[in-house]
Design brief:
The protein is an alpha+beta fold. It folds into two domains: 34 residues, no CATH class; 90 residues, GMP Synthetase, Chain A, domain 3. Helix content is 35%, strand content 35%. The chain is built from four helices and six strands, in the order E-E-E-H-H-E-E-H-H-E. A three-stranded antiparallel sheet has the order 1-2-3. A three-stranded mixed sheet has the order 4-5-6, covered by helices on one side. Helix 2 packs across helix 3.
Length: 136
C-alpha cells in the first residue's frame, strides 16, 4: 500500500505560502506558511499533521492490542503534542483518556506501552516518544 500527498510551495521560506493535498482529498489545497508553522497564523503545518497522524495511529494500534488481550474499548481519546525546537522534532507525547470495560489498570498500562512502541508512526519517528494514560 502506498499513500500519497503533495506539497506546493511558492516564494521564499518566510514570505512564501504553500498548500498540501492528499489523494483522499481530506487535505485539498490546505494552506500552510511560515506564520502557520512558527507563529499562530491560519493554516496547518507539518508538525500538527505529525501530531494528528501519531494520535490516530496510536489509538488504532491500542485498539488492536486491547482486542488481542480480550478487551474492547468503549472510547480512546488521544491527544499528541509534538515538540519542535531548533529546527527538529524532538519529542512526541501522547495523552490518552480511555474507557475500557473490565480491564485492570496494570494490564491497561501494559497495552498502552505496547501500542506506544509498536504503532507504525512511533516506529517512523526518530525522536523521544512518551505517553500518559488515564483509564476512566
Amino acid at each position: 500500500m502506498i499513500r500519497k500527498a503533495t506539497a506546493v510551495w511558492n516564494g521564499s521560506g518566510k514570505e512564501g505560502k504553500g498548500h498540501l493535498t492528499t489523494d483522499s482529498q481530506t487535505l485539498n489545497q490546505t494552506q500552510y506558511s511560515f506564520v502557520s508553522r512558527f507563529e499562530s497564523g491560519t493554516g496547518t503545518n507539518p508538525e500538527e499533521l505529525i501530531a494528528a497522524a501519531h494520535a490516530g495511529c496510536f489509538s488504532m494500534k491500542l485498539s488492536f492490542v486491547l482486542g488481542a488481550a480480550g478487551f474492547t474499548p468503549d472510547s480512546l481519546e488521544t491527544a499528541c503534542e509534538i515538540t519542535f525546537e531548533n529546527g527538529a522534532v524532538t519529542k512526541s507525547h501522547l495523552i490518552l483518556k480511555a474507557s475500557v470495560p473490565g480491564i485492570e489498570n496494570a494490564k491497561f498500562q501494559e497495552c498502552v506501552k505496547e501500542a506506544e512502541t509498536n504503532c507504525p508512526i512511533s516506529k517512523l519517528l526518530n525522536t523521544a516518544i512518551s505517553s500518559e494514560a488515564t483509564l476512566l
